[in-house]
Amino acid sequence: QVQLVESGGGLVQAGDSLRLSCAASGRALSWYAMGWFRQAPGKEREFVARITWSGGRTNYADSVKGRFTISRDSAKNTMYLQMNSLKPEDTAVYFCAADRVLGGNSYMSIRAYDYWGQGTQVTVSS
What confidence tens digit (pLDDT) does each residue in 9-49 have? Predict the structure, then answer.
């Protein structure tokens, strides 16, 4: 079984930065891509960013493009999300997810991902 554990969340002020990490552990760690999603209170979980594991191709939601950077360290089985110029609207629980194989669902859909972490809270005060 694969386990994903997020860390790095916290309470910051608008304009500050945070770096989230997602550490993967378990058997047969092999996937096509990993991604970050977030969920604010009363809202649906939404796509933030994705990175393909072998090629390192990245995709971002328009709302975070230019402010967030996704990366991965294959040797450590860890994915990161560097978040700069944080805004109050970035406040949410951030989840990491892993997609084992390329399937028919859009990478922006939660249905594309097979494994999920428990989430880490990010709160941005104004």
Answer: 999 999 999 999 999 988 767 789 999 999 999 999 999 99
Cα separation, 45 vs 37, whole angstroms: 6
Question: How many Å apart are CA 53 and CA 10, to the nearest integer?
Answer: 27
Beta strands in 53-119 (DSSP E): 58-60, 68-73, 78-83, 92-99, 115-116
Distance (Å, whole) CA 37 – CA 52: 15
Per-residue pLDDT tens over the stretch 85-125: 999 999 999 999 999 888 888 999 999 999 999 999 999 99
Question: Rounded distance, CA 13 to CA 73, Å?
Answer: 28
Separation between Cα atoms, residue 110 and residue 106, nearest integer Å:
9
Q: What is the pLDDT of residue 114?
A: 93
Instruction: Look up residue 8 and give its amino acid.
Output: G
Alpha-carbon distance of 126 to 119, in angstroms, equals: 23
